[in-house]
Amino acid sequence: MNQRIKIASGTIALSLLTSTLLHATNGDTLIAVGAKARGMGGTGIAISHGAESTLINPALITSIENTEISFGGTIFMPDISASMGQAPLYDSGANINIIPAVSIANRINENWFIGIGMWGTAGMGVDYRDAHRDPMDSGNMHMVTNLQLMQFGVPIAYRYSGFSFAVTPILQYGALDMNYNDFTGSSVGAGVSQDLSFGYSIGATYDFAEAGAEGLTIGMVYKSKIDMDYSDQLSVATKPFVDFGIFPGVMGNHLEQPAEIGVGIAYVLGAHTLAFDYRNVQWSKAQGYQDFGWEDQDVFALGYQYQQDNWALRLGYNYGSHPIAEAPSGPQVIAPGSYAQAGGNAINLMNLLGFPATAESHYTIGGSYSFSETFSLDLAYVYAPKTTTTMNTIVGVNPSTGEMYTGPCTVEHTESGLTFQLTYKF
Question: Which CATH number is associated with domain 9-425?
Answer without folding.
Answer: 2.40.160.60
